[in-house]
Amino acid sequence: MQGFRWLVGALTAVAVLAVLAGIGLAYMALSESQRMAERLDGLQRRLEVLAGIDGAANHYGEQVAVVLLTRREDLADLQSTRVALERHFARLSQVTRAEIERLSGRGAVDDELHTLDNARRMTELYHAIDRSTARALVLLRDGATDEAIAMFRTDVSFRLTNELQPLIDADILGERSQTARVVAAATESRQQFMVLGGVLGAAALVAALCLGIALAWGARRASAGLARQADAAAAALRAAQQRLSESEVQHTQFLTDVSHELRTPLTILRGEADVALRSEGDGSEMRLALERVQAQAEEMAELLEDMLALARTDPNDLPFSPTALRIDELIGAAAEEGAVLAEPREVTVATHVGSGPALVNGDGRRLKRALLIGIDNAVKHSPPGGRIALSAERDGDHIAIAIMDDGPGVPEDELPHVFDRFFRGRAEKEMQNRGIGIGLSIAREIVEQHGGRLWLENRPEGGAALRVVLPCEAPAK
User: Fold this and answer.
1) How many angstroms separate the CA atoms of 454 and 467, rounded?
2) Range(s) for CATH 3.30.565.10 in the chain?
3) Cα 253–chain centre separation
4) Bridge-based pairing state of the strands 398-404 and 464-471
5) Domain 325-471: CATH class, spelled out
6) 313 beta partners
7) What is the per-residue pLDDT across 48-78, written as a single tens digit (0 to 9) for each?
8) Among 42, 120, 317, 454, which residue has the fewest nearby CB atoms (within 10 Å)?
9) What gap in Å lies between CA 279 and CA 305, rounded to an integer?
């Protein structure tokens, strides 16, 4: 009897220790989850501030260009942009210092100190650029228009594009890398806690089973209830970690899509501003360029509304407004804006619409965006002075659209992966093309939303062809 009592006491002690260890493990897991959530929240705040700096810096360059082009004396818009940039830089330093204070003693302060130093460098660079802007405005006021424009090109536009923008892009990339590391660490931590929880659960289960054999039915029921509670706590912990991981993936994808979607209209805006600056007094050409800038600004406003809706709701709930579109007008609009993207590489964009005009039922802005992604991709892979062919042919109840370049084509082993998010082939690095590899994925989603198909293939005569097939309605009257 004494031995039996010793066995029961030992089993009870094991069970109690296992429960206490489980409670301690659950507390550690919840504490670690809270720490990861706070870390991700800090990274998200800095990404939002950096995105604001990126947009304000581009708006600053556009405002200075408009002032110089129109010789406008009212600088209220430019001053508002200056104030916004100052506030963004101050906010970046503030959230970074707050993160340094919160992370003190946790071994992750070095990254924040580097971010704080980058914020200081960006602020000093912006102040130097703004001083050049002030000098250019003084020259403009004194009637030295040519000197003012020359200073804008060399000391403002060039430094915004080649000095400040790379710093902003590097900081955004660094924050995303830190986010990825934190998510990876959270995943690893979750797996470790799950393994430890499983071991402790198994120990508790064995002890409870032995106690159930040794004790009466009531004791067995109590131990079974305890086991169920432990399983419920483990399941709740796994569910919380899963929600945290899914939320971070959606946030990262949203920021990536915003960055890519805004890059094309910003490039077109900058190209139109350059055309206007080179016009040398041709009022009609300058007016046409400014009208295009205005149209792109309106389209960017609509795009931002879409992105804000995407941040607030489910992506599938975004408004989709299909109308009857003439395919020749859609091709013409995409080719006109694509020519601005192709101009820096002296690449020409030629169009051909066969079989007469036809109608497709779709959202014109989104379909044009998909075509511009294809044109931009073709420009990046075309040699300087090359040619891009944009064509549309009716084939029964469908319209077949092709965007063809005369570049080197795509390696056969990379073709199955070109529509994967974040995939960038070997040629992208060799040609030093910018981008993160999501454009074709976005284009395919747009086309499939319209009931069509999109694929990329190599042409027998050389180069690559992006092909789009859309359902076609009756011919336009």
Assistant:
1) 6
2) 325-471
3) 6
4) antiparallel
5) alpha beta
6) none
7) 888 888 888 888 888 888 888 887 767 888 8
8) 317
9) 33
